[in-house]
Amino acid sequence: MRKGKILACAFLLSALAAAPGASAQKKYDTGASDTAIKIGQTMPYSGPASAYGTIGRVEAAYFNMVNEHGGINGRKLELISLDDGYSPPKTVEMTRRLVEQEQVLFDFQPLGTAPNSAIHKYMNAKKVPQLFVATGATKWGDPKNFPWTMGWQPSYQTEGKIYAKDILANHPNAKIAVLYQNDDYGKDLLKGLKDGLGAKASMIVKEASFEVTDPSIDSQILSLKDSGADVFVNIATPKFAALAIRKVYDSGWKPVHYLNNVSLSIGAVLTPAGLEKSVGLITVAYLKDATDPEWANDPAMNEYKAFLAKYYPQGNVADSSNVYGYSAAQTLVQVLKQCGDNLTRENIMKQAANLKHLQLPLARPGIEVNTGPDDFFPFEALQLARFDGQRWVAYGKVIE
Amino acid sequence: MRAENLPGPALPTWKWAGLAALLAALCALPFLLSNFSVFQLTLVMAYAIVLVGLNMLTGYNGQISLGHGAFYAIGAYAAAILMDRYGVAYWMTLPVAAAVCLAAGFLFGLPALRLEGPYLALATFGLAVALPQLLKHKSLEQWTGGVQGITILKPDPPFGLPINADQWLYFFALAVAIVMFALARNLLRGRIGRAMVAIRDNPIAAEAMGIDIALYKSLTFGVSAMFTGVGGALGAIAVQFVAPDSFNVFLSIAFLVGIVVGGLASLQGAIYGALFIQFVPNLADRVSRAAPWAIYGIMVILFMYLAPGGVAGIVHRISRTWKRRKT
């Protein structure tokens, strides 16, 4: 008892002694204090892209866990995540509310290319970080003109270029058929593929597009097959990717089949399409797939599953968006740890651009997050993988 | 839906005084509220202009449109393309947006107006569904910016006025809204307005009186689209961004909800409806994070059961009982 009192006194005294020095070093902008960090976010919880809303939910759950363990440097993370319904005018309104009324320190992972485009200039004029935007468009890594905006995931164009490289290396005389979703993401990936092929872009003998509202893509697949192509690039979100895999197989077409990263989930895409029909698919990966038996005994994957069960039980383990949000939240936590007591908007961008060899638990081995003052693309490395009927087997080197 | 809802012949003095007081209050608002709220109110005025236009069509003329979001988009894109590609001043884009939408509305109205009630609703619905994807089309991409949309710069206050850009835009929108409301009032209280209502209430009698129904219906559709286009241009300037995703089908439905909740065939109803469009989804989001659209839906249902005349109907009833008590 007595000893405890003395200890407490000593602690108090030392705290008092330390206080002036510490407060001299503490630097805050709007939204940061000794006890909390206010974070803003816009998410499509309703509307056409509401399936992605789980990213915001899993991130909120992750921050809850961090807060239960004492927060970051003693500060709790307060995430204010607002629904923009994937409508750009609503994103502008909600973001202005976050910045001007809620007074957040920064905006974390606002989702969607068009919604982020709508606030791009505003955030940079206001000098509020628009951090780790959840879209694969290429324009987010432009520190010269937009020093307050940074992407997170590998860009769709990078992905397309990697497929092009692999095709040129292994199938130089191929005839390529492309199926793509008729929106920004599909067109961006296709552009990357064409840029990667460069002078050989004429190898693409047939392109077919579809709308997310189409009930079936059978006719597109048949017309691609009739083109006589022997390489097929499948640029589609999960539901359509699965339909395409099945139709390609059932129609007796046997092309070299490249499947884009957003649809690599074994649970959500390959199983519904038929695992035996998926043998030989090629994709690029940067995150682990929770349904891949490769990671069944991976400690990091088990930790993720335990987290999901405790803090976000309604979340679907097989949904790759949850792995995505979990990893993005961990990236942010790393940035905030690096910031220490200097929680100015400027320092947040500085630390976000100062991530070195960060190996996230759910990123594939060897795929690290790296940023620098001139490098606003956290994930640039990707690895090719082939599906062997059970799991994705990585092959070749990690491609930067 | 009664004829007495038509704007009266002339305003009595006390009403002028009331309007002046209202105007003074509206002018004071931007100095009392945060910039964010001022921005929201600017959007309310853009929506109010749209609702006046839609109300002419639906409230006064009895035609249902599920596609006014398309004209809103055309107005918004007209303004954005003119400012972004051709460096036109923002205020100059409004008359152009109005003219483009008047023409588009009139032309769309010519064949579509052979259609009655639900058939016209479906035809306009088709327009609203088709337009966002047309805007993404390759051949238009050089103007529309495709899926990436167009970012425009916020206009600075002119003449070195000591106010910020949000406040200036508010006053600009207020001025445009006053002009458009005055225009609508004059149009509706004259011969044209009476012809519109006559067509709605009894088309056969109207034709017997010598009203050219097809012409009036197409004209109403055109003028209605024109108002919507002006609102769209104003909205685009306030938001500083247009993209196909901004103008989905739900926008058209929100407009229809707005005029019905605000009050059909009522000019002031447009203001209530615009407030509803702007603020109720936010309110619903605050009431319930998990199911904001359930709250929104329940509010719409309650409105329809408890106040079928919309907010304007309630206001009308209150002011009538108040007047009766006075006499």
Notes on the protein architecture:
The complex is a heterodimer of chains A (400) and B (327). Chain A is built from twelve helices and 14 strands. Chain A has 400 residues and is α/β, with parallel strands linked by helices. In chain A, helix 2 links the parallel strand 2 (36-43) and strand 3. Chain A is globular, with a radius of gyration of 23 Å. The model of chain A is unreliable at 9-24 (pLDDT under 50). Chain B is mainly alpha-helical. Chain B has a domain at 36-248. Chain B has helices at residues 13-32, 35-60, 68-86, 90-112, 117-135, 141-144, 165-189, 191-201, 203-208, 213-239, 249-262, 267-287, 292-306, 310-326; strands spanning 150-151, 241-242. The interface between A and B is medium-sized, with 31 and 28 residues.
Summarize, please.
The complex is a heterodimer of chains A (400) and B (327). Chain A is an alpha/beta fold.
Task: Describe the secondary-structure layout.
The complex is a heterodimer of chains A (400) and B (327).
Chain A: H1 2-25, E1 27-28, E2 36-43, H2 53-68, E3 76-83, H3 88-101, E4 106-108, H4 113-126, E5 130-133, E6 149-151, H5 156-170, E7 176-181, H6 184-197, E8 204-210, H7 218-226, E9 231-235, H8 238-250, E10 256-259, H9 266-273, E11 282-285, H10 299-311, H11 320-339, E12 342-343, H12 345-352, E13 383-387, E14 392-394
Helix pairs in contact in A: 2-11, 3-4, 5-6, 7-8, 8-9, 11-12
Chain B: H1 13-32, H2 35-60, H3 68-86, H4 90-112, H5 117-135, H6 141-144, E1 150-151, H7 165-189, H8 191-201, H9 203-208, H10 213-239, E2 241-242, H11 249-262, H12 267-287, H13 292-306, H14 310-326
Helix pairs in contact in B: 1-7, 2-7, 2-10, 2-11, 2-12, 3-4, 3-5, 3-10, 4-10, 7-10, 8-10, 11-12, 11-14, 12-13, 12-14
